[in-house]
C-alpha cells in the first residue's frame, strides 16, 4: 500500500490545500459555463436580446440617385450614393416601445390620451415620440435611425417614384392621413393597414400613419444642411433641429411624397411623430 502524504512527512496544512485545489479544479472543468447548458447558449443570449424577433427588416441595395425635389422653394434636390442598408419594414409599434421601456427601465412620461402608448392597442404605430427617444430606442438594440437619404430611397422605391405606390397623386385611402382635411382620424393604425401605402420592396406606411424622425439635421438639401433654423416669432434664437419625413394621421396628403420633409426640436413629442430603425 502506498504511503499517504502525511506518512511521508508532508505537513497536514499543505495536504489540505492540495486537496482543496484539486477539488476546485475538477469542479471548474466539469461544470457548464454560466448561462449555458452542456456548452450551448441559452435562450437569453445577447444575440436575441439585441435583435428582437418582432423586428422585420427590408434590405435596400446600394446605388446612386437624385434626392429631394427641384420643384420646391428653395430647391432641395441633390445627388447621393448609398451602400446597401436595411430598414424596418414597419414603424415601431406600441408593443415594441413598451418592451424597450420595461427592459431598459427607460423614463417615458406621456399622459395624453391621443398618444398610442396609453390606448391599450399594442399593434398600433408608436406616436408622441421625440427624436431623442427614437434615437435611444434604436441604439439600445444596436440599431440606428435611418439617414434622410436612406429614408427617402426606401419610401420612393427602386424606381424613385414620387410616392411609395408610384407617381399617381394620393386619393382617399392611399394612406393613413387626412385627405384635404376632410377626414378626422383619431390615432395611428396598425402596421400596413393602408394596402396602397407600400413600396415595391414591401416597406409599409412611408406616406402616412406617423411621420418619422431621421438621423439628419434640418437644412436645405443633403444629409446635414445647416442644422439651425431661425424663427421669426418669440423663439428667435437659433436652435438645432432634426428632420422628419412622411405624413401622419394628424396631417394631410401634402407631406406624403417621399421627398417631403419637416423639422422639429430633438425633444418635441408631437401626436403625429413616430419612427423606424435601420442598420
| Overall number of strands | 12
Largest sheet: 4 strands, mixed
What is the strand content?
Answer: 15-25%
Computed CA radius of gyration, to the nearest angstrom:
27 Å
Low-confidence runs of at least 5 consecutive residues: 4-8, 13-50, 224-237
* CA(first)-CA(last) distance: 70 Å
The overall average pLDDT, rounded, is 76
Biggest sheet, spatial arrangement of strands: 11-10-7-12
Order of helices and strands: HEEHEEEEHHHEEEEEE
Helix content: 10-25%
Shape: globular
What count of helical segments does DSSP give? 5
| Helix-and-strand structural type | alpha+beta
What oligomeric state do the depicted chains represent?
single chain
Produce a short descriptive summary.
The protein contains five helices and twelve strands. The chain is α+β, with helices and mostly antiparallel strands and 279 residues long.
Report what the structure shows:
The strands form five sheets. A four-stranded mixed beta sheet has the order 11-10-7-12. The N and C termini lie far apart (70 Å). By secondary structure, it is α+β, with helices and mostly antiparallel strands. Strand 1 and strand 2 form a beta hairpin.
Characteristics of this structure?
279 residues; alpha+beta; four-stranded mixed β-sheet; two-stranded antiparallel sheet; 5 helices
Write the layout of secondary structure elements.
Layout: H1 12-30, E1 36-37, E2 40-41, H2 46-49, E3 57-60, E4 63-67, E5 78-82, E6 85-88, H3 94-104, H4 131-140, H5 148-156, E7 211-217, E8 228-229, E9 239-240, E10 242-245, E11 261-264, E12 273-274
Parallel strand pairs: 7-12
Antiparallel strand pairs: 1-2, 3-6, 4-5, 7-10, 8-9, 10-11
Amino acid at each position: 500500500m502506498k504511503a499517504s502524504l502525511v506518512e511521508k512527512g508532508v505537513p497536514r496544512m499543505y495536504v489540505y490545500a492540495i486537496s482543496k485545489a484539486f477539488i476546485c479544479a475538477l469542479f471548474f472543468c466539469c461544470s457548464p459555463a454560466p448561462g449555458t447548458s452542456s456548452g450551448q447558449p441559452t435562450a437569453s443570449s445577447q444575440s436575441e436580446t439585441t435583435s428582437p424577433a418582432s423586428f422585420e427588416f427590408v434590405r435596400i441595395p446600394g446605388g446612386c440617385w437624385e434626392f429631394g425635389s427641384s420643384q420646391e422653394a428653395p430647391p432641395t434636390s441633390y445627388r447621393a450614393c448609398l451602400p446597401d442598408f436595411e430598414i424596418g419594414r414597419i414603424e415601431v409599434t406600441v408593443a415594441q416601445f413598451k418592451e424597450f421601456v420595461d427592459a431598459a427601465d427607460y423614463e417615458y412620461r406621456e399622459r395624453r390620451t391621443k398618444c398610442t402608448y396609453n390606448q391599450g392597442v399594442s399593434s398600433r404605430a408608436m406616436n408622441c415620440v421625440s427624436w431623442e427617444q427614437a434615437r435611444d430606442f434604436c441604439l439600445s438594440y444596436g440599431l440606428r435611425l435611418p439617414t434622410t437619404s436612406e429614408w427617402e430611397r426606401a419610401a420612393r422605391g427602386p424606381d424613385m417614384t414620387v410616392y411609395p405606390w408610384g407617381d399617381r397623386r394620393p386619393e382617399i385611402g392611399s394612406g393613413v392621413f387626412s385627405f384635404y382635411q376632410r377626414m378626422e382620424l383619431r390615432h395611428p393604425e396598425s402596421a400596413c393597414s393602408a394596402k396602397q401605402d407600400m413600396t415595391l420592396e414591401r416597406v409599409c406606411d412611408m406616406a402616412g400613419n406617423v411621420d418619422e424622425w431621421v438621423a439628419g439635421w434640418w437644412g436645405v438639401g443633403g444629409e446635414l444642411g445647416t442644422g439651425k433654423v431661425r424663427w421669426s416669432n418669440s423663439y428667435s434664437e437659433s436652435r438645432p433641429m432634426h428632420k422628419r419625413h412622411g405624413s401622419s394621421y394628424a396631417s394631410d396628403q401634402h407631406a406624403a411624397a417621399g421627398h417631403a420633409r419637416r423639422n422639429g426640436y430633438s425633444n418635441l413629442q408631437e401626436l403625429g411623430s413616430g419612427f423606424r430603425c435601420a442598420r
